[in-house]
């Protein structure tokens, strides 16, 4: 059976999905991995990728390439999102990816995709396991440097998609730099986030959504915390439904903690501990916005472990 791989390199983490392809075209997951590399370290302020960030990403990608080779991967697609879109020295990053990925598929190199393309891939992956009866959906892909909003149906009909320059790393570095964030910083973050949500609403019919789907690390970690898991368990997290009340209890607790205190919780990756406070504020403002947009009808998130990677691999098939 052919084996294919997708790699997603975002602002905070780089992720790998390897699948085999059956004779009927059905995908079977072989491995799914996530490594915090903080590629977007300082990009918002400096406009370029930090050498240490590129080195961390090279190390992680080299490990992924070794795994691909061991599994017999014949085709790979890697996409790079917010951090590389904003960087003046992105050619250095792309040369590194061409060198490593070329060992698996000659000519392969990371692609910078637009926020809208990123959104469409995220939507396809995030909604694959949800009943179509719960649509229309608004998929919210909350990343390190950007957050994508996509409204559509499970049949793939997209009503609108928009990428905002709002993510947990960007908001942390720009506003919430204290540990823990001060009330003034949180207030200022809320103002920025509300502005970005309003911006998204002017491009995407958010009010059409019946069900909210949250994907990427902030949402999956918040689900694990809200469920009181003792360890990060993807099976328990995927397709979990977390009420706004549960989510608000969780975000309030996170915002009161220091990064060191968050690191003590086994479900919070140490590379996410210093930025998940900003992620929590983004989620709080999302809840307030959708309560207003839906006149109170929407009161929960479905959390998906699947997202852009699943869309990438499906596209390869």
TrEMBL record:
Molecular functions (GO terms): pyrophosphatase activity
UniProt xrefs under Pfam families: Ppx-GppA
Gene3D superfamilies: 3.30.420.40, Exopolyphosphatase. Domain 2
Record-linked InterPro entries: ATPase_NBD, GppA/Ppx_hydrolase, Ppx_GppA_N
Domain Ppx/GppA phosphatase N-terminal span(s) in chain numbering: 25-313
Name the UniProt record assigns to this protein: Exopolyphosphatase
Native organism: Corynebacterium tuscaniense
Classification lineage: Bacteria, Bacillati, Actinomycetota, Actinomycetes, Mycobacteriales
């Amino acid at each position: 059976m052919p084996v294919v791989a997708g790699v997603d390199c975002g602002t905070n983490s780089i992720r790998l999905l390897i699948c085999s392809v059956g004779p009927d075209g059905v995908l079977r997951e072989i491995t799914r991995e996530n490594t915090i590399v903080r590629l977007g370290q300082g990009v918002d302020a400096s406009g370029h990728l930090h050498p240490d960030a590129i080195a961390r990403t090279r190390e992680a990608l080299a490990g992924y390439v070794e795994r691909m080779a061991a599994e017999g991967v014949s085709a790979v697609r890697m996409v790079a999102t917010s951090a590389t879109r904003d960087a003046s020295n992105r050619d250095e990053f792309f040369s590194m990816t061409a060198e490593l990925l070329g060992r698996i598929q000659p000519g392969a190199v990371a692609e910078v995709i637009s926020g809208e393309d990123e959104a469409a891939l995220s939507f396809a992956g995030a909604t694959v396991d949800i009943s179509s009866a719960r649509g229309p959906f608004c998929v919210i892909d909350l990343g390190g440097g950007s957050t994508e909003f996509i409204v559509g149906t499970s049949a793939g009909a997209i009503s609108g998609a928009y990428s905002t320059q709002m993510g947990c790393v960007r908001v942390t570095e720009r506003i919430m730099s204290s540990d823990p964030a001060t009330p003034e910083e949180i207030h200022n973050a809320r103002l920025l986030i509300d502005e970005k949500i309003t911006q998204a609403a002017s491009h995407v019919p958010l009010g059409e959504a019946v069900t909210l789907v949250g994907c990427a690390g902030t949402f999956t970690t918040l689900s694990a915390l809200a469920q009181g898991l003792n360890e990060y368990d993807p099976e328990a997290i995927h397709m979990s439904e977390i009420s706004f009340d549960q989510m608000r209890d969780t975000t309030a607790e996170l915002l009161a903690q220091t990064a060191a205190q968050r690191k003590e919780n086994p479900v919070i990756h140490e590379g996410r501990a210093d930025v998940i406070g900003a992620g929590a504020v983004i989620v709080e403002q999302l809840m307030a916005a959708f309560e207003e947009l839906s006149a109170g009808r929407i009161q929960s998130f479905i959390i998906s472990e699947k997202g852009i990677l699943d869309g990438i691999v499906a596209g390869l098939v």
